Amino acid sequence: MVWLLISTGFTGAFTLMFLAKTVQHKFGTARQILAHFSPAGGCCEAIVQEIKKAKREILVQAYSFTSKDISQALVDAKKRRVKVDIILDGSNEREQYTELHFFLEHGLEPQIDAHHPIAHNKIMIIDGKTIITGSFNFTNQAEKENAENLLIIKGHSELVGIYKDRFHHHKEHSRAAQPKQHAPTVAPQTQPHHGLFHFHTKAA
């Protein structure tokens, strides 16, 4: 940057910087990699903020999904006419505490990748520009208790292309969700107590 200031003068340098940012904003995204860690590292909030920036498309692959903040952000994106495409691990059909039911209620229609013993991906691809990945599951436990890592990768178009290809590869062998209906939890009932005492007498 120093050589730029010397060779062009401050005015010329700032003009070039402005033009570079304008071209970058119009034709691409600046290369950037952000790292977050949990617990209490702001992973969930970072994901929600990236979802809020989405304008066209969000592709999601998830193993476990219990985060209400992230699921609500995806539903809100759909309401903004963003295409939201979700592939979940089959365990979400069996688990009681999963956001699969919430997604179905709001018309997101997640697919289930039952082709593998575990579909362990935790990935979002936003607008073909941003990749969110890492060990961080989209769950409350990952946010508040577990030791997890999260990467937000921007501006790496070749890497985005690779991740999108893998997403569509898994989508080809995925199917519609068939969630198991769980019986409502009912508090156990105690036997009525009649206040009767039973005496046992010993034969003389």
Number of helices: 7
**CATH fourth-tier homologous superfamily:** Endonuclease Chain A
Unreliable runs: 193-204
- The amount of beta strand, in percent, is 15-25%
Broad shape? globular
**CATH-derived architecture:** 2-Layer Sandwich
> Under CATH, the topology is which?
Endonuclease, Chain A
SSE string, helices as H and strands as E: HEHEHEHHEEEHEHE
Helix proportion range: 25-40%
Rg from Cα: 26 Å
| Tally of separate domains | 1
Arithmetic mean of pLDDT: 85
Sheet with the most strands, sense and barrel status: 8 strands, mixed
CATH classification class: Alpha Beta
Distance between the termini: 109 Å
Q: What class do helices, strands and sheet pairing give?
A: alpha+beta
Query: How are the strands ordered across the major sheet?
Result: 1-7-6-5-2-3-4-8
- How many E-type strands? 8
How does this structure look, described?
It is globular, with a radius of gyration of 26 Å. The longest helix is centred in the first third of the chain and has 26 residues, at 2-27. Residues 193-204 have low confidence and may be disordered. It has one domain (29-175): 2-Layer Sandwich (Endonuclease, Chain A), CATH 3.30.870. β2 (57-62), α3 and β3 form a beta-alpha-beta unit. The termini are far apart. By secondary structure, the protein is an alpha+beta fold. An eight-stranded mixed sheet has the order 1-7-6-5-2-3-4-8, with helices on both faces. It contains seven helices and eight strands; from the N terminus they run αβαβαβααβββαβαβ.
